[in-house]
TrEMBL record:
Lineage, top ranks: Eukaryota, Fungi, Dikarya, Basidiomycota, Agaricomycotina
Domain Fungal-type protein kinase as annotated: residue spans: 2-188
PANTHER family in the record: FUNK1 11 (PTHR38248:SF2), FUNK1 6 (PTHR38248)
Gene3D superfamilies xrefs: Transferase(Phosphotransferase) domain 1
Superkingdom of origin organism: Eukaryota
Full protein name: Fungal-type protein kinase domain-containing protein
InterPro entries given in the database record: Kinase-like_dom_sf, Pkinase_fungal
A Pfam entry, by short name: Pkinase_fungal
């Protein structure tokens, strides 16, 4: 077992409540069944930080109030322990789970290596989409799209801009899917056989400390010169999938950018056709030759 202790925003839908919705979806969708964390016990302490601030005489005691949660889960294994086809398979399972949940109105919004886990079941590795404390419901309390959530090194480039910092960019499905691609690159280029590479051999150390806009600029550098980041010992098919996924992302981003140039003053052109067909967008990746090759059972 593992315990998670955190201060959650009192006004938001709680993680246990979101997980209840997730379990309901898991009962009827195999892409979610077995691919979500098992919550064993939880407790919410009823005294919010606003009450503490009020007792101390701090001004505006009811602003941004938080409450303490303790959640106990079944222990899972980190995705960073995997590589090659095993890594791809668990990662792909998490993408499928995420897509179904998004369609059903549960928006994860924080795809990162620490939130992609796995465990053994009947001799198979089962991927788990973990950690829903930054998630939101389509019809619930919490971030509704324009509040920046996520872990900076893995966020979509469109969310790492000045516009996003001002709340002008809505967090959509394609942003989370792009996060999956950054997670895949992060693991492939920074780990070998589940072990963190020495500093001189790994990339992206500075991404973890940069501000949002600066990190977005670093990502563009990678997209424009991926050969400079290619490890000599990486599996050829894995590298092919990684490169082609980023080609798809860059072409999609360029297409939306050129649409915005046509009528930059019009809100409707900010993200044309964004998220109109989630399956069609995902199929741009799943139809890649390398993706299909890695998806075949052994």
């Amino acid at each position: 077992m593992v315990a998670k202790i955190f201060w959650g925003e009192a006004s938001r839908t709680s993680e246990p409540d979101i997980l209840n919705k997730v379990r309901e979806i898991a009962e009827v969708h195999d892409t979610v069944k077995d691919h979500i964390p098992e919550l064993l016990w939880h407790h919410r302490f009823m005294n919010p930080t606003s009450a503490i601030r009020e007792a101390l005489g701090v001004p505006e005691p009811t602003t941004g109030s938080r409450v303490l949660y303790i959640l106990v889960f079944r222990k899972l294994l980190p995705i960073t322990k995997l590589q090659g086809k095993e890594l791809f398979d668990v990662w792909r399972q998490c993408i499928s789970c995420h897509l179904t949940l998004w369609k059903k109105g549960i928006y994860h919004r924080d795809v990162s290596p620490g939130n992609l886990m796995w465990y053994w079941k009947d001799g198979k590795r089962i991927g788990v989409l973990n950690d829903y404390d930054l998630s939101s419901l389509a019809n619930g309390q919490g971030p509704q799209g324009n509040e920046r959530t996520g872990t900076v090194p893995f966020m979509a480039r469109e969310l790492l801009t000045e516009d996003d910092q001002q709340g002008k960019v809505k967090h959509l499905y394609h942003h989370d899917l792009e996060s999956f691609m950054w997670v895949f690159a992060w693991i492939c280029l920074r780990y070998r056989e589940g072990v963190f590479l020495p500093r001189r051999l790994r990339s992206f150390d500075e991404w973890a400390t940069l501000g949002a806009v600066a990190c977005g600029e670093k990502k563009l550098v990678l997209l424009n010169n991926m050969t400079a980041f290619a490890p000599s010992d990486i599996d050829q098919v894995i590298w092919e999938v990684l490169v082609n996924c980023f080609v798809v992302l860059k072409m999609d981003a360029d297409n939306r950018y050129y649409h915005r140039l046509k009528r930059p003053w019009s809100v409707e052109y900010q993200q044309p056709n964004a998220d109109s067909d989630l399956d069609a967008f995902l199929s741009k990746f799943t139809s890649l030759e390398g993706w299909a090759k890695l998806s075949k059972p052994e």
